[in-house]
Amino acid sequence: MRSNKPFRAAPLNRRNHYRDQQQSSDQTAAFKFLGAAAILGGIVGAGSLAFSEDGRAKIGTVVKPVAVRAELVRARAPQPGDVWGGCNDARAAGTAPIYAGEPGYRQGMDGDGDGIACEPYR
């Protein structure tokens, strides 16, 4: 048997839905606040270490490997007498990139002629 009554959807309870959205918004704001507080605490903590010579040395030992890996600094500065067969040798020694005027720089290693030999890959 078929009914000829039209279909009617059940009414939604909008108040609970609004309350759930409000709680989610409050939680998001709390996480943002706690995240900002953690970052600020880390900055203040690291900054307090920088006031002493030992603290600066500790910061340097932690930060330098990260900076070398991110290719922001060289692992080793070019030394007088450095001669490289190519960029792969300079990179393996940790002296790349080599700037014009530094030991080990030569025009043959500077492919684009901008004064920087063995530039990092991007």
TrEMBL record:
Regions that span the bilayer: 29-51
Q: Provide this UniProt record's keywords sorted from A to Z.
A: Membrane, Transmembrane, Transmembrane helix
Ranges where the Excalibur calcium-binding domain occurs: 87-119
- Positions of region (Disordered): 1-25
Indicate yes or no for the key word Transmembrane. yes
Q: Name one Pfam family in it.
A: Excalibur
Q: What name does this protein carry?
A: Excalibur calcium-binding domain-containing protein
